[in-house]
User: What shape does this take?
Amino acid sequence: MAKKSKKQQAGGTPATVALTAAGVKFTVHSYDHDPAHPSYGEEAAEAMGVSPDRVFKTLVADVDGTLTVAVVPVAGQLDLKALAAATGGKRATMADPTLAERTTGYVRGGISPLGQRKRLPTVLDASATSHPTICVSAGRRGLEVELSPGDLSKLTEATLAPIGRT
Assistant: This one.
């Protein structure tokens, strides 16, 4: 079992630890998560008072047998055909939730594109670049991190592509 760093022991998550280590400017937003809310992402947008087109959800898909991270606005949906095309694949389906949790090290509703247990290919919806900052999960329900789309793209080595739809 991996030893937790002092920052993780003090309440940080692997995502915030990765951001701090990279020297990236970011802001953490915390809110009380309501397990009865039907959408983790929409709940985050409401709780933070941020437009849903600036809050992005992290989804894990299977593209031709390869787990792939898709980061799309919470106000829309993931276009699986567009994701497959963006990665040079033929077919994409949503990954098994248990496999996604085990591979990333995060629980559903708290999967962050940052600090994952195993680095997965990542595709960031191109709409992210129309905002100076976006919010993504910081690694647990009720915790978001705000950062520039450029920094997120660089740290995750993401491909930018139009993979979201409304």
